[in-house]
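Researcher: Good morning. I'm working through a list of sequences from a screen, and I'd like to move beyond sequence-only analysis. For each chain I'm collecting a predicted structure so we can compare shapes side by side. This is the next one on the list. No need for commentary yet; just the structure.
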Amino acid sequence: MQLELIGKLIGMFVDKILDEVFPNETGAARLQQIGLFTLIFVLEQRGETVTSTRLAELTGQSPSAVYKQLDKLDEIEVISRKKVTEKGRRGFSYVLSIKQNAKTKKLIRALETASK
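Model: Good morning. Structure tokens for this chain:
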């Protein structure tokens, strides 16, 4: 039951990524978006802070390549970026999270209920 709901939840996001095609976008770029989304999802579930720098470190991709794909995920509204200032450092960074909508919130509530 719980695994089925998790599959539906992830599927809703992946479908949204696959449905939105950007001009001149390659299949490889779309796979990168799905991979980054999945990584954000997993890290967020573990309670880790997710940033583009962390994603670049984990994937071995350049920060600019990761940032480019994150822009696309942000544009189709499957992720959120929250601007944060790090204590003792200049500038800011963005903490990434999965953006919820009414359908995903409903599935998450069902998952929480099923796990009790």
